[in-house]
Design a protein that fits this description.
The protein is an alpha+beta fold. It folds into three domains: about 5-130, Nuclear Transport Factor 2, Chain: A, CATH 3.10.450.50; about 145-250, 2-Layer Sandwich (Alpha-Beta Plaits), CATH 3.30.70; about 255-290, no CATH class. It is about 25% helix and about 35% strand. It has seven helices and 15 strands. The strands form four sheets. It has a six-stranded mixed beta sheet with strand order 2-1-6-5-4-3. A five-stranded antiparallel beta sheet has the order 9-11-12-10-13. It has a two-stranded antiparallel ribbon with strand order 7-8. Helix 2 runs antiparallel to helix 3 (about 40-55) and helix 5 runs antiparallel to helix 7. It starts with a helix and ends in a 22-residue tail after the last strand.
Length: about 290
Amino acid sequence: MDALAVAGRYFGAWNQRDPEAITAVFTEDGTYTDPNVAGIGPQATAEYAKALFASFSDLAFEVESEADCGDGLVAARWRMTGTHDGSFQGLPPTGRSVSLPGADFIRVEDDRVRSVHGYFDTRVVPRQLGLQVLVQPKTVGPFSFGTSTYVSRAPTAPGAVSLTVLEAGSAEHREEVQRRSGEVVREMLGMPGFISWLGVAVEDRMFTITAWERPEDAARLRESPAHGEAMRRFFGPSLARGGQTGVWTPHRLGGMWVRCEACGRMARADADAGAACECGAALPEPPRYW
């Protein structure tokens, strides 16, 4: 048994970008493990590879060093390269190149791969693609943590806010809701009266806050094809365990304050108070209301 030759066939299957060849190089009960997946079988490994090939069509591994450690164990240091020309973790193709160093410990048995344990820094590729890499707890005591997305078109004070909450049925459904939300927001950016949108995801709980100039502007969502399709999915047989939506109008909306760069005091920056500080200095551009 030539363990190095079997490891070479394993890397060759990846470099051929051939999921079936990756499956064939494993024993029937072989397993693959890396920081993203744990102990998956040959077929699941092929599906995992297929998803990577869809994101990086020229993905390739260069084995920089390898050693036969005896007893069928091969240690290999490699570098994965590729061009981001397909969707990756919800990110549209950027055309950027990635270069990821890593290492595999490959156990060979009967001229096939019995197991692969891969090690690499999961933050490298997202950072190279311009993604933020955030490490935070899921929960601390009564507090839960998540992620958010924001887009704003106008600095106008809102006359209404539409709020939605949805509880996704699974991780796959969360991804679908996020994708569909992006499609809806792209349409909202062209709607009269739209001010801004904030989306928040905390595990399966998903929220949106949309600011509008007037309450009737929120009704324009009914004209959105993407929103209509999302509603059909919501009321279909899966996607969500439940949800709620509503439109709120301000009971009291305080004016906008901004710090004077000349004297350091906070001053009203809305139209009624004018655009100058009491000290006579012109005020800087105020932040957006929403």
